[in-house]
Please model this.
Amino acid sequence: MPVDIYWRIAMEGDQKSLYEPGSTRGGFADHLSGGLAPGRNRGAADGFTHADYMAEVVRASEESGFVGGLLPSFAHTDDPWATAASLAAETRGYRFMVAFQPGFLHPVQAARMSATLQKATGGRLVYNIISGGGGPQQLWWGDTTGHDDRYARTSEFLDVLKGVWTGEGTFQHEGRFYRVADGGLPAALAGQPFPEIFFSGSSPAAIQAAGRHADYYLSWLEPFEALAEKFAAVRARSPRPPKFAVRIDILARPTEQEAWDVIRRGWAGLPAEAEREGGDSVGWRRSQDFTAGADGSFRALQVAPNLWGGFHRLRPGPAFGLVGDYRQVADRLEELVALGVDAFILAGVPHLEEARRVGRHVLPLLKGNPR
Amino acid sequence: MSRVHIVLPSAAAAPPPAVLPDRLTDLRPSASDPFLALAKAADLAGLASVVVPYDRQGPEPLVTAAALLRATRHVTVFAGVQPWIATPQYAAKVSASLQRFSGGRFGWYLDGDAESAAFAQTAGDFWRRPDGLPEVLSEHAFPAVVLAGASGTAHLDVAGLEPDAVAAAIDERRDAGFAEFFLTVGHDPGEIYRIGEYVLPVLSQERAPSHAG
Model:
């Protein structure tokens, strides 16, 4: 089985390094000399936008061997649908993995947007279905549905979306959350391949829903034994077991010492850890439990060889990632493949330069290692 | 000041590509987005905007508008937005990115009903209020909104009309007090170039340069 490796696109702008916090790229800070897309050129605004920066990351990842990019969606980020639709014409084989929360879109609209994108890209749209971390963030979007109900709604959303996709004007649905009469896509949009679904969520309700709909069950990186247990739980609840994907931050350098030095520099400049805003993300609680009791040193957050649980302190996002030399990181990825991982979503800061680094130095070490 | 906008035609009505004789080497690419050439023509011709109306039989307007904005420099691109497609908050969020990516050239084209107006109101409030969209995402103004059938806007179907006829139709309505002209065009970008070259100068009281001598 081939392994699909994606590279994350930073929808929230990008830091200039892992050890210097705050976005300088993508227009998420004041437009200063040295800011990238947009920045200033000869004293004037350079006219670039975040889309120009992301287009460059897309190009770098496409040229470096990644099959596509995850476009995450949060309250503070640019929007993945808008981004994929803007950049589709600038790539040839690159897949756009659009993250979205079913609660905010009508499934008929999702079908129409998806089919339009499929047509524009020749079938290169991929879904990352998320049902939300809950708490204030959900209310901000105008969504008051409770945690477990959100997964029920996601399930119904995907039923309707698939029904409309092939409905030919005859799809009928009368459900708890949606009602559709004579649903289907117009001839101009019909007949496209249905996007592959990457499904996230660590709670029992999420795993239940993933079992019905996921092509890939997507997890943040966790200690490998915990991941294996999670995958086993998904398999046990799935009438049709999905493939597995893991989202991983990579900090790879020629030597392990150089990689840890990057962490050390970032750690030295950190303020005291702030409490994360409330929410009901089970995945986040799990990741914190794996490092519970660690002292204040960054080394204490290394829970296994090359597996470090402090990335969230250095940039927004999940806690765990891989730190090491190119070979060590490749070896850890190979171990995950042996655990049953079929796809990776890798990331590194800054996403532009690190896409080329990981593509040049880490991906080639995976080749020639069939399962 | 009069402004001329084009309204894209139905995708379903797009004519198939011309069939070339067998003896000609045919290296034409497969049919690309039929709207791209029309939007680029409007951009080059100096028209004010391109409207991608909601069309049940056609592609989705937000996705189409995103592609057209990326491919143009000056025109505003209005997407037909229906109030059922998303929460108003999410519609605002998608729109904020399109505004950021295009330098503030994105707009909403709405049916003139109460539901659409309420949808736009809620989205606009979310855009502007302190606990709504983050400041960095809402640095541009809320998308310009055009209500179909609003007073002061004239809608004309000019597909296939010669420039003189277009200019005459616009002139007649301008005399009646209209300032915004939404012209539904056909699938030929040539019509749009001609609107720029022959109709805009008349509207701005300019005259085409004389080539005599």
Observations:
- Chain B is about 40% helix and 15% strand.
